Amino acid sequence: MTETLAGAAAHPADRPAGLLSLAELAARVGLSVRTIRFYTSRGLVRPPRRQGRNGYYDTDHVARLELIRDLQAHGLTLAAIQAYLEGIPAAASAADLALRRALLAPWRDEAPEPMDRHELHRRAGRSLGAAEVATLEALGVLTRVGREYAVASSRLTAALALVDSGVTTEAARAVAEVHEAHGGQVAEELGELFHREVWPAMRDSGASPEQLREAVELLKPLSIATLVAAYESAMDEAIRRVLARRTC
Predict the structure, then answer these.
(1) Which pLDDT belongs to residue 27?
(2) How far is residue 148 from each of residues 76, 80, 139, 145, 169, measured CA to CA in Å?
(3) Which of 25, 31, 77, 236 lies in disulfide reach of 20, CB 3.0 to 4.6 Å?
């Protein structure tokens, strides 16, 4: 009986060092044996390495399955995941895949808090009208999820103050469009810089996939803090220029 079909580990003497059985792989990545077999049949994961009648899996299998799992968590369909994986070079190492996983993780300062309409109104201190809710949504403070909302609680008070000051939904959407356009450009340039300058040095130094993920996690708050500081400085300068023109 083979380990691939039965899920049992082969004799230690017969197993190549550092490799996993199918059952061990499933436990490692948190997926079922059936799911791994399905992904393999679809070409999302390469077949196991054969040693006699047994099949074994290495760190590349682990890294690819973890990436697929995270892509699914982001809501990608199987077809979209397949298209994404096809864009990854065949020679990509486990560390390369770990980098992609690390960059997929949310860069938010807080996890959105689920609230129903009643709780949202209670937190706001009043009953919110449809236009007010739409403005909060445009400001990026809340997102509709079915009949509930995902709310950035720490920013709710400031956003409500903006609504009360007369900021319209249209104005909020215009601001969001500016942030999205320039934020996308910054993200692309920083991502390219990381791939070109930071990642090769770490890879050449022998950094493990776990060390790579840790480095990206450390980079996130530093990048966000730097962007906020640059934004504040630029806004201060822009306000000074506007005031200077109006006093001329």
Answers:
(1) 94
(2) 22, 27, 17, 5, 20
(3) 25
